[in-house]
Amino acid sequence: MERQDVNTDIQTTSEEAENEETERKRNEQQNTPETNEQKASTDNDHQRNEGQELSESRSVSADEDNSSIFSVPKRYVLAIMMFIGFMNMYAIRVNLNVAIGAMVKPHPVVERGRHYIKDPDFNWGSRLQGIVLGSFYYGYMFLQIPGGYLAMKIGGTKIYGAGVLVAAVLTLFTPVAARASVWALVALRVGEGLALGVMLPCNHQIWSHWAPGSERTILVTIALAGMNVGTIVTMPLTGLLTKYGFDGGWASVFYCFGIAGILWWVLWVFLIHDTPAKHPSISKVERNYIERNVSVQKDVEIKWKAIMTSGPVWGVILGNIANDWGLYTILICLPLFLMDIMHFNVQAMGFVASLPFLLKAIVGPVGGVIADVLRNGYMTTANVRRLFYCIGAMSAATLIVVSGYTTSVKLAVASMCIGVAFSGLLHSGYEVNVLDIAPGVSGIVMGISNTAGTIMGFLSPLLVGVMTEGKKREQWQMVFWITFFLYLAGTILFCILVSGEAQPWALEDKNDSESTLDEESS
Fold this sequence. Notes:
The protein is mainly alpha-helical. It has helices at 2-43, 45-59, 74-104, 126-140, 144-154, 156-172, 174-180, 182-196, 199-210, 216-244, 250-271, 284-292, 304-308, 311-340, 350-375, 381-405, 409-423, 430-437, 442-467, 473-497, 510-521, and strands spanning 107-111, 114-118.
């Protein structure tokens, strides 16, 4: 009996051991695929994240926005509103350039079906006209950096909207100021420049909260295209209003554009909000998608020394300087070349005068789409920025030199148009790069960069005036070669200094963030 019990115990122990071995093998078989799957997941994590961001961008409105087939993602509503905002900015900026002709010279007017030539309301000489036209830029450059700072502290959308509103209200009072005193008009234009000087820094600060990485270039270039369309629309509309408008013709220009700016501001207040988190009607899908794919942090400290000693920041600044020099030379000085050297009446080609802006307005957003496609799987962000800056800058540089040597008016005008069109690619180069390197303080960096670029608006016409006093072709050729080499220098320096990564000083300090979380959890 005792022997039988022992055999029974041995059998039981053997069965338990066998069961344990079977169970162990079963667990290994179950765990092995999981381990391999985890390893594969780890190896492909980066590719999945990139694909996920793109797929999320395509389906961002699929789940939450099915209530209406006409739903537009809120970030694109923002892009459209900023596009119109920049249209208003340039309408206010350039309307006086056209209207002043009707203010100081006899011009045709149609009033109650009666056609007649109206005498000028003002007797301003060329020098005084130059002061009036240039007064906007004296104000424009001074609030670039403060505008970026206020956008960080108060909110980019608030400052952006307020800039347009203030400038629009001042525009309404332009006829009153002009009829009171030319210096009252100068002061008013300085005020408009101050108000609108905040807009570009605010633009970047706003997109630091709203632009997912995979759509950053296209969203920014859509918004900025409003500047070119604003110029295209304003020039012919101003001409029509000076002839068919009320209150002497020219005065109606400022009433109409002022009211347009105020109406835009009303829509802006109701439709636009500082961040996705503060938007009352954004879908959860879109909000989560945006918040996962932006780099901006809250309460980023402005490290001025780090910003001003940063190589990538100086790359943007130098790229901006080269671009603005070339742009002002092409748009301001080349028409003088056509008149003085080619003996061509530029005013007779109103459509051609606006054609470069039209082409640039198309090329800019198209370049933005291509740039974002290249960034998502084909090239690094830094190399995309280099590519688009090189193509935009060197195409414009080469074509402006061609203009200086051709004897054909058509070829000179075509070179100007194509050169300005290619310069639209520069937005996808240095300008959007501000958001790459400084997401938390993009408004400040853009303010610094645009201040430096705006200075070129003073220096370029001044140097050209000195160098071309003799009105000889050789003098203009020298101007164009200087522009070429400035473009070349800007291209080389930008390509050397550019970075596609957010700089440490532009992000919230990780240790501070972790300590804050520890304090909250305790």
